[in-house]
Amino acid sequence: MKLVDLPKLSTKRIKALSESGIDSILDLLNFYPRRYLDRTTVAKIDHLRGNGEEVTVVGRIKKIQQKGRGRKKRLEVIIRDDTGSLKGVWFKGGHYIKKQFSEDELVAFFGAVKKYGRQFSIAHPEYDKIGDSSDIQDLKKIVPIYPSNKALSKTYTNSKLIHQWQKVILKHEKPPEFLPESVLEQHSLPRRHEAYRMIHLPTSKSEYKQAFKRFKFEELFLFELSIAKTKHEVIEKNEGKIFQNLGDYTTAFFNQHLPFELTDGQKSALSDIKKDVRSGTQMNRLIQGDVGSGKTVVAIGAILMALDNNCQAAFMAPTEILAEQHFRTLSEFLKPLDVNIRLLVGNQKKSLRTDILTDLEGGGCDIVVGTHAIIQQEVNFHNLGLAVIDEQHRFGVKQRAEILQKGSHPHVLVMSATPIPRSLAMTLYSDLDISIIKGLPGGRKPVKTAVRPQKKHSGIYDFVEEELKKGGQAYVVYPLVEESEKMDLKDATAGYKKLKKRFSNFEVGLLHGQMKSKDKDATMQQFIHNEIQVLVSTTVIEVGVDVPNASIMLVEHAERFGLSQLHQLRGRIGRGERQSYCILIHGHKVSKEGQFRLRKMVQTNDGFEIAEADLELRGPGDFLGTKQSGLPEFRVADIIEDQRILEQAKTAAWKVMKDDPSLTQPEYQELRKVFTPYYKERSKFYGMG
Ligand code: ADP
Ligand code: MG
Q: What are the E-state strand segments in 91-125?
């Protein structure tokens, strides 16, 4: 059957459907109702209570009248059954609705009933014209309401018509099942054809619920299957180098040179890594830990394991500032060990660059720290054994895949400082093994957070000054709105001038995205060495910067920042012995959501809790930036609400992949037909096509 075989399908309607993403019979079947009207109970008017209960009432039209003037203008349609009367009221669109009805006609109204005086009424009822010939029993059903849009409503392609088409399709078509029998059975899912019937022509609420569950499952199952296959093809096929020795470097570092005790979280992450690098398959592990949990030392541990086994290690950061900082940190930590560390970033002199590349290829360089410049084509390693990626969410899935494929298939360690909610981690990173570093190194005092209005500025500055006098340092952050970098710069620059005056006894510095990276670095260095006490900046300091002496984070227009971003900023302080303070300053008008975010920041310091709330506010696409996140847009599933289904789908998918990775068994015939094109599409996304 083809779309054109459907009744009442004009060329205009075909076009409207196409504009709505419907180009085939299957697309139309996959066009699900947005909600359902439950008409299984038609109420008698004298049984109504009028306290907002949703009902269907059937009666004859007694009166159609336009009432009121101006803003109070409305259409009233009074219907009567054999027990009483009820009024339908339209405050909008009355002009059009009026033409639909004529007196004495039999109609059904559906909606929430209110009682005004002795009169029952429903505002903007859904309605059906019944016509005397039709059977009232026909109304006692669940009616699907389909989504609409401009194109559809312009061509009068209404819910009823779409419903009619679905009926016709389901009579003629029987879409083949592609989920394996065993999976259907285990999870009590309706078969595909039946599920389409249940979603378009349900006889009860539980039917369409079951159908939705099935379609969500199907969607998540395919997604998980694609991840499982990626893992199977890319990772498990790659033999991992085996780091058998925990030799001189690792032992010496942890026993003699590390200036502190590892936390339990750090120890367990390191032991996970140790297991991976000895297993014979490529490590692909995510270390999740809140800001300040001490991920760098864990990475250093892994790097030393590589060095002990005569391999090189690479350490990637998302920005040059961070790469440079990591370079310094690593150099500092590893000073006693006599290893050759080099920094590779985008804007180095050609001669220096050539020198570094030669060094890498020849094996003279043990560790290279840098931005994604490291994984570019022309960079060749002598024997790369490990790649560490810091701040994963900025890189995304594609880059990780690139590294996994690079040269001799190094082990990969990904570190994320954005605590990713479990639900998201499970989908997004389900081909990764995950270690979580819980808790912060001891001796840390939790940051105190306060929310203040702009007009309190002078008091706040007094407070900041007290802290500076005690020897602390402060960040002052202005928002960066991408559309108008110039304007932000104005904000930050104006703030800088103001603060320079206010804190004339101290050094005030300015850091923003449009500065040359050399200047940025110089300013940052000054702040690190306490030659600058107040650092005014746009959010370029957001991630990873480590200045333990900084004890104040003052955020201007805090209501404009996302939750995770605020949490990242707060993570810049409280990294030393000092009690630290995060002061969130907001403007006059703050949206409800903005207020919620600020409140949440005061309520908790727990990054996971904040990430969970942020994800809920913004949805998964925005949370990570859809483009780089590698997250598909799910049609029906919602990875927050449908976590249970997601877990089931994941287990089922991974089981199938283990059972028969090429899906050649008879049970997987149909699945293979559906999965092959799906996987191809996703692989492109992964950059591995
Ligand atoms: P993040 O996880 O945010 O990358 P870092 O690795 O930058 O955190 O560590 C934050 C700070 O805590 C650094 O100054 C680091 O040297 C220090 N640190 C790390 N582990 C410990 C520990 N076990 N005890 C004390 N300080 C630690
Ligand atoms: Mg870090």
A: 106-116, 119-123
What is residue 689's predicted lDDT score, i.e. its pLDDT? 32
Q: Which atom of ligand 1 is nearest to the CA of 260?
A: 24
Measuring CA to CA, which residue among 630, 633, 646 is closest to residue 221?
646
| Short-list 161, 144, 128, CA closest to 13 | 161
DSSP string, 284-336: EEEEEE-TTS-HHHHHHHHHHHHHHTT-EEEEE-SSHHHHHHHHHHHHHHHGG
Residue with tokens 């699945």: 671
Provide CB contacts within 8 A for 682, sequence distance 6+.
223, 226, 632
Nearest CA to ligand 1 atom 26: 441
Residue 688 alpha carbon to ligand 1 centre in Å: 35
Q: CATH 2.40.50.140 spans which residues of the chain? A: 41-140
Q: Which tens digits make up the pLDDT trace of 329-360?
A: 999 999 999 899 999 988 789 999 999 999 99
| DSSP for residue 49 | -
Lowest mean pLDDT among 48-52, 288-292, 410-414: 288-292
Minimal-distance CA residue to ligand 1 atom 13: 294
HSE-up (13 A, CA, CB side) for residue 295: 30
Parallel/antiparallel/unpaired status of strands 119-123 and 473-477: unpaired
What's the confidence (pLDDT) of residue 606? 87
Residue 292 beta carbon below 6 angstroms from any ligand 1 atom = yes
Q: Which ligand is nearest to the CA of 438?
A: 1
Alpha helices (H) along 309-435: 320-334, 350-362, 392-405, 422-428
Mean of pLDDT values over 361-380: 88
Class at the top of the CATH hierarchy for domain 41-140: mainly beta
Query: Is residue 399 within 8 Å of 376, Cβ to Cβ?
Result: no
| Span of 381-395, 537-551, 617-631, 654-668 with lowest mean pLDDT | 617-631
Ligand 1 pocket, 291 CB below 6 A? yes
> Residues spanned by CATH 3.40.50.300 within the chain?
248-437, 448-604
Residue 624 pLDDT: 63
Is the C-alpha dihedral spanning 460, 465, 470, 471 positive or negative? Answer: positive
Residue 561 exposure: Cα atoms within 13 Å on the Cβ side: 27
Residue in the block written with tokens 């969130």: 584
Average pLDDT over residues 442-463: 91
CA 671 – CA 688 distance, rounded (Å): 22
**pTM confidence score:** 0.69
* Bridge partners, residue 55, by sequence: 111
* Fold of the domain built from segment(s) 448-604: Rossmann fold (3.40.50)
613 phi and psi angles, rounded to 5 deg: -65, -40
Output the pLDDT for position 363.
93
Structure confidence at residue 688 (pLDDT)? 42
Candidate from 262, 296, 413, 437 with most ligand 1 atoms within 8 A of CB, to mutate: 296
Question: Is the CB of residue 548 below 6 angstroms from any atom belonging to ligand 1?
Answer: yes
Q: Identify the nearest ligand to the CA of 575 by its number.
A: 1
Give domain 248-437's CATH architecture: 3-Layer(aba) Sandwich (3.40)
